[in-house]
Every structure is written in C-alpha cells, then in structure tokens.
Amino acid sequence: MTERHPFRPDTAAAVDKRVDDLLAQLTLDERIALLHQFTPGVDRVGLAAFRTGQEALHGVAWLGRATVFPQAVGLGATWNEDLVRRVADAVSAEVRAMRERDDRVGLNVWAPVVNLLRNPLWGRNEEGYSEDPHLTAAIATAYTRGLRGDHPTYWRTAPVLKHWLAHNNETARDTSNSSVRPRVLHEYDLKAFRGPVEAGAVAGVMPAYNLVNGRPNHVSPYLREQLRTWTDQELLVCSDAGAPSNLVDSEHYFATHEEATAAAIVAGVDSFTDHGTDSSVITGRVRRAVDRGLLTESDIDTAVRRQLDVRARLGEFEDFAGADPFEDVRAFDTEEHRALAQEAAEQAIVLLRNDGLLPLADDARIAVVGLLADECKTDWYSGTLIRRSTPLDGLRERFGNVAFAEGVDRVRLRCAQGQLRVPDAPAGDVVSEGDGSALDPALLAGRTDLPPLTVSPDAGSELALVDWGNGVLTLRAPDGRYLSVAEDGYVRASAEQPGGWIVRETFTLEPQGGAAGIEHGHSGGHLLRHTGTGRYVVVAADGVKVADEGTEFLVDVVERGEDAVARAAADADVVIVVAGNDPHINGRETEDRTTLELPPHQDRLWRAARAANPNTALALVSAYPYAVPDADAALPALLWTAHGGQAAGRALARVLAGDVSPAGRLPQTWYAADTDLADLLDYDVIGSRQTYLYFEGEALYPFGHGLAYSDFTYDGLFLRHARDTLEVTFTVTNTGGRTADEVPQLYVRPVGMPVPRPRRQLVAHRRATLAPGAAERVTFTVPLADLGHWDVARERWSVTSGTYELLVGASSEDIRLTGSLTLDADEQAARPVLARGLEAVAYDEQRGTEIVDRTKSAGDAVTPCADARTGSGSGELLYRACDFGPDGVIGVRAEVAGEGVLEIGDGCTLDVPATDGPYSYVTLDADFAATGVRDLRVRLRGALRIARLTFITRGTTT
Q: Which domain of life is it from (predicted)?
C-alpha cells in the first residue's frame, strides 16, 4: 500500500496547514537543502526534487525550440494588455508542454522584467516594457496573469518579477550604487513592481545585482518594508545568479560568506542561485551560519515555507488522477501560437514618420536592403526558433519578386603568408533550410570538428564584413557561417549567428604603423583582435588561431556595401532599408551602449539608398531607441520595431503593404542626441529631468508616439469626480478610410504645485480598433491617488489640494483634449521639523551627494560624492519650507559618522571628528538660530555621512 503523507490531498487541510505539516517532517539539514536553486528530493516524505528558475521573457528560453514572441520592449510597444496576456497564456502552456518531455523545464518562471527603461543606453533595454511606471505595471500585470493562468486554485506557472530594484546599468552592475531618493523610490521604481504584486498573480521577485542607497539589493530592507506589505500572499525571493557570493567577493559588504548568507535570509531571500547545480557551497554556508548563531531555525523555516507554498500552488502535491487542471493547456507550437506570434509582431510596429510613401502599392517595384533585411535575430533570452520570417521573406511572400542587397562590405584579408581562406564545409553541413525548421542543432560556435582557417598564396576567401559600431565587427564566410573562436583557440567558420554569454564571433581591427581606416580597395596594416578572448588572430603552421601577438593583415575591399545598396535602390520604385542591432553585440546583458547613434556602417547605407532613390523608408529593427535626426529630416518614412520573434518579417511586410495599419506606440522617449541623456548611473529622474515625465528638451519622437494609416478625431471631453476616483470620458472617431487601431492616452499635469511634479504623467490608456467612420465613447476611471506624490516631510503618499490638468491625446505631446480639475485634498504645509526632526535623505534638492546605507540592515544617510583620488568630496542639500516655529530654535543636533565638516544654514559649522567607521554614528550639537518658515541648506565636506538633524529650542533637555 502506498504511504500517504499528511500534506497530500487526502487531507482537507488548507494549503498553509499542509505546508506546515510537511515542514515539520523535515530535518534541519533537509530544510537547509531547500534553500538552493536546485533542491534535492526527500523520498521518505514523498517530496520531489525541484528547481527555481525558468526563463520565459518572451517565450520559453534556453531549452531548445519554442514559439518566439517579440522582445519585451516590443510587447510594451503594443500598449495592449489583452494581447500581452494571451502571449503569456501561450508561453505558460508551452512551459507545461515542454515539462512533460523534459524535467529540466521549471514551473517557477523568471519573468517578466519590470525595471523601468529610464536610460535607453542600458544594455538590457530589450528586456523591459517602458520608461513609464503605469504602462510597465499594466503590461507586467497582464503578462503575470497569463503566466499564472485562470484556475482558481492552482497556478500554471509561478512568475517571479525581475530585478528588484532601481537597476538600469550593466556597467559595474554588481558594485554600482543607485542613489534613489524617497520620492523617486515611491513615485517611480516601486510603482512598477507594486501593480502586478497587488494584482495577485506574482509568485515573487528576484533582487538585482546592484546596490540601492549603498546597500546590496540582496539584503534590502525594502523586501520587508515594502514588497511584503502589498499582499497577504507568500512571496518567494530568488537571488540572481552568483549574487549571494558577490556580497563578499566583489561588493565586500560582509567579511564572511556566512554573515552575508545569514543577512540575505533575514532580509528575505528564500532561494539561492549560486554555484550552478552544486548546492553544497550554499548549504554549507547556511549550516555554519546556524551553528554560529547568525541564523535561527525559525529563519530557515520562514524561507522554506515560502518555497513550499509556491510548489503547493503549482499543484505539485496533488494527485489529480485524471482531473489535471492543466491537461487541456499543454499546447506547443500550435496554429494558434503561430498566429499569436504574428499578431504580436504586427501590433508592436511603430510608424514614426510617413509623408505618404506608405503603404506600398501592390505593383511597386521594391528593393529591400540593409544588414537586417534578411535576418531574424534572437536575443539572450529567446528560445530556439522553430520557424522564422525575415523582412526579405515577408516582402517576397507578399509582393513576389523583390530586389535585395545586404550592404555588407566584401573583403579579403591578406598577410605576408598569403590570403585567409575558409576551408570547404563537410558535405551535408547546413546553415539553414527553408523557414529555419531544419536547422542543424549541432551548428554551434564552439564546435571543434571543422577545420580552422588557413592561408592561400593565391585567392583567399571573400568575407562579408559588418561594422556594428564601436569598431566591433563580424566576418562571415561565403557559405554564411560566421568566423568564430572555439575553446581550443582556433578560428573557424562555424557559427550560424553571433551569440552566447561570451560572444565568440566579434573582432576589432587595430591599425598598425599609422594606418588609418579601411580605404576603398585596400587598407594599411591591421591586427585583428578577437573580442571574446582579447587575443589576436595569428597565422600558425597548424592553422589560424588566437594568441597574445597577432599577424598583421591588409584588408582588401572588393565591394563597399553602400555601392551594392545604391545599385539595388536605383532600379526600384521604393526602397526599404532595414537597419538596427544584433542583440548580442553592443548593448546586451553585461554591456551597456555608449551612444544612441546608428552605427556608421548602417548610416552610410540609408544615405546611399536615399541618394539613389528618394522614395526610401528606414525600418529600424532594434532592442532600443536610436538618435536618427538626419534620417527623420531626409526620409519620407521611418518605422521601428523591436526584434519581433519568429513572425517578424511577415508582420513588417503586412504593415508596409497596408494589410495592417500600424498602431504600436513608443514605450520610451526617443532622444535626438546623446547630450539629451543624463549620466547612466544617475537614478534621480526628478533632479536630472529624465524620461518624458521630466525631460524639458525636444524629443526626436516622444513617449507614446506612433502613426497610423488613418486619422482620428477626439471630442466630447467630460470629467466627473467621485470621492476616490476620477472619470474621464471622450469620443474617438476614425475619420479615415481604413480600419485601424488608435491608442488614446490620458495624462495628468499638476499645476502650480509647491514641489516639482512631472510635466505630464500617464494614468490611463486603451488600444481600440475602429472601422472607417466608427466612433467609440471611451471612459477612463482613475483612482485619485494616482494624482499624488510622496510627501518626504511626512513620509506618506499625498494628493495635494490644487489644480490638475487632464490631457487626452495620441501621445504625450500630441494632446487633443484638455480639461482641469480642482481638488480639495491635502494641504501642503511647511515641514514640522520641531516635532519630527529632519531625515537627511528627505531633501527637496541636492548637488554633489549620494544616498548611502545608515546601517547594513536598515536606514539611509547622505554623503558627498567622493573624489576618485582623495576619497572625499563636497555637496549640498536643500530642504524647503522648514517650520522652526514662532519662537525659533537655538541649536541643532546632527547624527553623523565618518570625518568632515557640516555647515547648517548660514554661520553654523560642525567639525566632525573621525568616528570608528562609516556606521559608527555620533551626535554633535551646535548653536543654530532660525525662526518661522524658511528654506534650509546643509553643506557637506569630507568623508562623512549625515543621517538626521533635530533642533533644540529653549527649555529642551540636552
């Protein structure tokens, strides 16, 4: 007879009681073992092995072929929650289907990414939805609901949000500090996470690698103080890969791994993704932390309980006996999924500019050119394509005969020994066939069974050279294989595409002996450096390989890419230039971009096409925005889409043909130049005026922008204010001749407020399909709380009394209707500094400071930004409207650490003697006189930290 365990379904106990029962049956060592990503089974109690983590950002990733949907930023560009939920439904169905045949597939999925796209130079821009917290939260909520499924009890998959918190840089991502003042924290970064968590479809979060306010996210008090207060549901916190070890190894935040591991568990981390499948390192640290009194068994139980709760919700502990609630949703690569991938790709396309060139006439002679014209790129978090459609494929399918020129530079590389030659591939070795479904899975960059490159004294191989920007280039053999360097160091033509965690298909040319760039027909000498290894290509007796010293090559240019493009363009009625990025090069996880500019190679291609044929459109297929003001001024049409997954080419062709009217909207601002951007590591969106919320310049294309092949009018604005909500109603009418989607957007603009507020802020949106002449009455219901801000003086959310403009339009700058509302709400009173004191971090403005940790476990302090040479610096804080009372104050008390000088107001100077360290605070008093309501400036010099000020009145006991 099979043994029954009390946590199994023959008991009527609630899930939490069953989890407690199971927990009680486990030994301490068994419970500790559950804290690693790869948890072993416990046979004696019937507990199976489990692992956290399955990537599912826009399809099931890393485990072979699956339906590939548009990148996350493309899903954000749809502004369509219903579509995004259906995409996530399909993804979670494929997770379940793939798990049936491969137990490596996990049901705890690490998606979506809700980090806000504050700075478009972030290398992982493709992974987020938007720069706006409202839109990000709405799309993320839809995606998590689809991943969770509709069953009232059991979850199809258990989604984990990434990456908690304020994470937008790959540069020094494990050691950089995001200085996030309270207003930005509550009004911006936390809002993106809070929406989906409160919606109840989130299983947990993953902390980010970076530090926030001086403290690593993996020991963040916000997990306890914020995240877990938003829901009564248990939330599982899974560490990012290797991050627990970073607490000691790179961040040096703790002296020992036992201290670090204990601190992470106490802060709220429940699953450790570290040291791959080897759980012994982490479990050993946890066990030693318990033995040393750094952790209690209760701490362990709290973390394990959260894990078991998620497993119970996934139905793991049930014996459904033929009544599996997910039996009908284990779908994989169905017709419905293929159609959905195409629909999502179509809805993600944004028409940036159109002077009548589009849509294309059915009989137009079309040339499609450019480096991405015959590409269907995937990224690090894509699954393997089952099928693919490139722009060339799509246009030929739709229009028939379409001319094509890729625009690569055709070159030969020669050296003293001869010319580089690619040996013939073995018979039957293919790169791709048809729609890509017959790709040879063994065709990997790391394969070593192919012969390495050699040299020939006569004719070498003609290589396709592409410069992707920043001097990074790829070289492709005549048969389509990319030159790659395997682990053995030899150079082979072995890769179908650039890819991998370390990309092995990219090189740079380093001029030698004063040689300039490559000239037409020839070049001066260059060393060819392999970027993946940092070593140089050298011709050796046993083949071409990489070494510490390289062979000098001359680059003979057979044909420039722009010449081929110009020829194709001259013979066409319309030219479509397809440009953009390869998601594995110059901007990806571990690598931020350095510029918004289109790479020079691709800039030359669109200019050559335009010179040969003024009827040229530029289609940008990219993971992020570009600054293309010259193209905007010169070309009659521009479009943008993120890499659109398996149906990208067909979707683009249908939009170009007018079969589908474009209605994607930009999920982030497209700036005109790099000078419009704040520093990548500046997280103060208010102080440095970042994103459409605060940017005061003129964007190239504003947030929410996108055109259609039809026209829409807006009229009949009506506002109604209930107690806690605001209703905004208006009519949208399609006045054009085509069925098309429109995306009406509602923004709010506070007027004349005492603290800086956004220029305008999105609070509602909808995507609607309208036939020619059709009208729709749209009503947005907005909680009045959405009009508020974080009151730093009182440490609470506040809706201030005053006037609010309501702006309805087709983008953040294309406003069609305006109304106003006057609210009688919270009065913005002066800061009650006598009663509450003054937290240093609660400033209104700052210059030259950053927020750091007051202690390792909680609290904030402020310090001057340190000079790289001296380790000290100077800065200033401004606190507006401080109320010192009618009788005034006679002194000030500062809680400080470190060493330096503190100047408070005019004439009050405190010399801070060196304390025992940055967390060793002392309280210093000084004479300070102030009366009534006035602004207060505090200046900091040296290597000091200030946590708090309090003020002394006559009669105060000191």
A: Bacteria
Give the pLDDT band of residue 514 (cuts 50, 70, 90).
low
For residue 639, the number of C-alpha atoms closer than 13 Å in the C-beta half-sphere is 32
Which among 558, 485, 563, 483 is positioned nearest to 518, based on CA atoms? 558
Calculate the CA 823 to chain-centre distance: 36
Q: How far apart are the first and last CA of the chain?
A: 76
Helix axes 561-570, 600-612, angle to 10 degrees: 30
What are the structural domains of the chain?
339-406+563-691 (3.40.50.1700), 417-550 (2.80.10.50), 710-823 (2.60.40.10), 833-952 (2.60.120.260)
Torsion sign, CA atoms 91, 93, 95, 97: negative
Which residues are registered as beta bridge partners of 805? 749, 820
Cβ of 522: how many Cβ atoms within 10 Å? Answer: 12
Go through 616-635 and write b for each residue having 16 or more CB atoms within 10 A of its CB, e for each that does not. bbbbbbbbbbbbbeebbebb
- Where helices occur in 613-707 by DSSP H, the ranges are 629-634, 648-657, 691-694
Q: Is the pLDDT of residue 522 over 70?
A: no
User: Residues 6 or more apart from 271 whose CB is under 8 A from it?
Assistant: 35, 36, 37, 52, 236, 237, 238, 239, 303, 307
Conformational region of residue 689, where left means phi above 0, alpha means psi within -120 to 50, and beta covers everything else: left
In 3-state terms, what secondary structure has residue 919?
Answer: coil
Q: Which of 702, 192, 242, 605 lies closest to 409, judged by CA?
A: 605
Residue range 396-418, pLDDT digits in tens: 999 999 999 999 999 999 999 99
* Euclidean distance between CA atoms 594 and 599, whole angstroms: 11
- Indicate the burial class of 786 (C-beta count within 10 angstroms; 0-12, 13-18, 19 or more): middle
What CA–CA distance (Å, rounded) separates 799 from 423? 71
> Do the Cβ atoms of 100 and 111 come closer than 8 Å?
no
Q: Tokens for 891?
A: 């002194």
> What average pLDDT does the segment 676-688 reach?
98
CA–CA separation, 186 and 702 (whole Å): 24
CA diameter of the chain = 98
The residue whose two tokens read 């909808």 is 766
Give the Cβ contact number of residue 574 at 10 Å: 21
Q: State which amino acid sits at residue 554.
A: L
Q: What would the mean pLDDT of 805-828 be, rounded to a whole number?
A: 96
Alpha-carbon distance of 129 to 126, in angstroms, equals: 8
CA-wise closest residue to 691 among 43, 191, 105: 191
CA distances from 289 to 217, 240, 863 (A): 20, 21, 32
Residues 244-271: pLDDT tens digits?
A: 999 999 999 999 999 999 999 999 999 9
pLDDT of residue 428: 61
Strands 933-952 and 889-904: antiparallel
Secondary structure element (H or E) that encloses residue 569, with its range? helix 561-570
Reduce the DSSP state of residue 206 to 3 states and report it.
Answer: strand
Q: What average pLDDT does the segment 829-852 reach? A: 96
Instruction: Answer yes or no: is pLDDT of 7 > 80.
Output: no
Q: Is the pLDDT of residue 343 over 80?
A: yes
Model confidence at 137, in pLDDT bands (50, 70, 90)? very high
Interhelix angle 280-291/297-313, nearest 10 degrees: 140
Distance CA 912, CA 924 (A): 8
SS3 337: helix
Average pLDDT estimate for 209-227 = 98
User: Is the whole model's pTM more than 0.90, yes or no?
Assistant: yes
Structure tokens at 890: 């006679």
> What residue has token string 């290509």?
537
Burial 771-782 (b: 16+ CB within 10 A, else e): eeeebeebebeb
Q: Which of 653, 833, 804, 828 is nearest to 726 (CA)?
A: 804
SS3 (DSSP) at 557 = strand
Sign, CA torsion 448/449/450/455: positive
